[in-house]
Amino acid sequence: MKIKDLIQYPLNKTQYYPIVFKKKQIVLHHTVSGPDAKNVINYWGNTIERVATAFIIDGQGNIYQCFSSAHWAHHLGTRKLNNLQLNQQSIGIEICNWGALTEKGGRFYSAFKKEVPKEEVVDYGINWRGHRYFHKYKDEQLESLKIILDYLCEKYNIPNIYQPDMWNLNNSALEGTPGIWTHVSFRADKSDCHPQLSLINLLKSLSE
Question: For the chain, which residues score pLDDT lower than 50?
Answer without folding.
Answer: none
